[in-house]
Each structure stands twice: as C-alpha cells, then as structure tokens.
Write a structure and sequence with these properties.
single chain; 321 residues; mainly alpha; Rossmann fold; Tyrosyl-Transfer RNA Synthetase; three-stranded parallel beta sheet; 55% helix; 7% strand; binds adenosine-5'-diphosphate; binds tryptophan
Amino acid sequence: MRILSGIQPSGTLHLGNYFGMMQPAIALQEKGEAFYFIADYHSMTSLFDAEQRRQNSLDVALDFLACGLDPKKSVFFKQSDVPEVTELAWLLTTLTPMAMLENCHSYKDKLARGLSPNHGIFAYPVLMAADILLYDSNLVPVGKDQKQHVEVTRDIAIKFNHTYGETFVIPKEQIREDTAVVPGLDGEKMSKSYGNALEIFGEEKPLRKKVMGIKMDSRTPEEPKPDANQNLAIQLLKLVAPAEVAADFENRLRAGGLGYGDLKKSLFENYWNHFAEARKKRAELAANLDYVNGVLKDGATKARALAQTVLKRARKASGLE
Ligand code: ADP
Ligand code: TRP
C-alpha cells in the first residue's frame, strides 16, 4: 500500500496540522510505503516572499522530522524537487471541469473572505491531484478540510482512465474522526491564517500567554457544567494529555468546583510536556542542517524515480509519446 500526503510551508505548523495530519501520517509509516512532502509549489498561491518560503520549508522539514517522521521508513521530499508534477498537472487540468473547481469549499471560502483569487488558487486542487496520482497513491491521510480535494482527485483520475485507458490508481482519503477538525483559540478551525493557532514549537512564555488568554464563559467555578465536553480547553486537553488526566478534568468541570484558570494552567503544562521530547530532537536537527538537507535530497531522488515512470505511463496513454 502506498501512502502519500503533503503540507504547505505557508506558515508555522500548529496543533491542527499535528493532530489532523502529521501524527496520523507518522503512524502510517509503519503500515506501508509512505511518501510525504513539503508542498512548496502550493505555498506559491498565498505566500509571495521567497526568503520566507525558504525558511518555512526548512521549518516544516525540522518539525516533521522532530515529530517522528523516520526517513528510513518514509520518503520525505520537497514537492518542487520533482518538477514532473507540474507537467502531470497540465495533463489533468485539461480533463477537469471548471464547475468542479468552482465548487471546492476551500476556494469558495477564500472568495468569501474577500480574497481576489489568482489562477493558482483556482487550479490548486489539480496540482494536488497530480501530487497524489504521480506516486500511484492508495491512501491520503489529511484533515477533514482536504477531503473534497481527494474526491476531486478521484474524479479526475477516473475521467483520465476512462478517456485514455487505465493509467492511474484511484486513491482514498484517510481522516481520523477524533481529530478531523482541531479547534483554535477562538473555537473555530485552527488555521495558520486565522490567528487562532497554538504552534507545535514555540517559545514557552508567549504560548503560555495564549493558552491562559482563551476566553471562557462567566459562570462561577462552583457552578456545575453539564456541557463540560464542549469546553475548548477540555477538547484540547484530550489531545495533549493522557486520557485519564483529561477525563478527570472533564468530570471535575462537570461537577463544579474547578476554576477555568486551573484548567487552562493544566492545559498549558500538558501541551508543553507533550512536545518536550520532540522539542529536544528539533534542536538537535537544527544544529545539523546538512543531515536534514541530505534527507530531503535523498527523498527527492527516490520520489523522482517513481514519478518519472508514472508520468511516462500518462504521456503514453494520452498520445504525447
Ligand atoms: P492551515 O489551515 O493552517 O493553512 P493546511 O491547509 O496547510 O493548514 O493543512 C495541512 C494539513 O493539516 C491538512 O491535512 C489539513 O487538513 C490539516 N489541518 C489543518 N488545520 C487543521 C485542523 N484545525 N484540524 C485538523 N486538521 C487540520
Ligand atoms: N492541500 C494540502 C493542504 O493545504 C497540501 C497538499 C498538497 C496535499 N498536495 C497534497 C495533501 C497531496 C495531501 C496530498 O493541506
């Protein structure tokens, strides 16, 4: 089974990225042949600072490796090191109905937020389809917001196979229900672009301040709270704390007698400790960038070899060769 996923170097990675995509992807590296990449071409749709892209790409590499991506088990590379993907995107784009892209939620959300879209933002799902199909991927671990893009990929692959003959493997998304949408500090989906994120790696003081600043309702500590499971701090605690610790806090909140300040303090401590080991590993990696760059280079060589065989298949099928 081939597993593939990507993450954009468009900002600092946060708990939504970690629990929605990175942790499931890292767990899957034991289950099959995993390909994970830094989607730097995709980041060009929203980030227009070259140096920032370079820095973010390195940060994503450090974050992913520190969190447990094992280059002995997974092929880890930068999307743009395999430029074949842009050629495949063209082959696919000619079979993609405009209406299918106009219907994509992520595109519609961007329009709704008043963004004046460039063609890249519109065509984004086609490049993503090329990412997935170029490696004969079976399974794509992603957060819920990417589900539709994998569905689009499937539709395009089926259309290509129908038009030019069996060429592509039909992929499927994998979404972990318990972490499908990690809420941010404001209760909305945590996102790099909404200013509501808790970073995986950051400075202790500002992160503590963010957690302690989470807005709660005005009920007194003594009051029982039958809706304790809806509480944002409880929801986040369930992700970062041992199950029995989170359950204990939830029960105490439900029963009454637990103050929000104490709850938030515990949330911060568990969040900070959850990533203690990864933080140490990240510092070691940051002091050894030759190793990190070597991993990406090696990954690109392996990925490119596979990409070239699949692209050739598509070129032949469609009469380019
Ligand atoms: P962002 O919304 O912060 O820009 P990306 O779109 O780069 O994040 O997402 C990278 C991966 O992380 C995707 O698989 C996405 O589904 C997942 N992801 C992002 N935010 C969340 C979240 N809040 N909850 C669950 N998964 C998420
Ligand atoms: N669009 C994805 C995101 O924003 C990133 C991505 C690009 C991706 N290509 C992919 C994810 C291929 C899975 C498979 O999160």
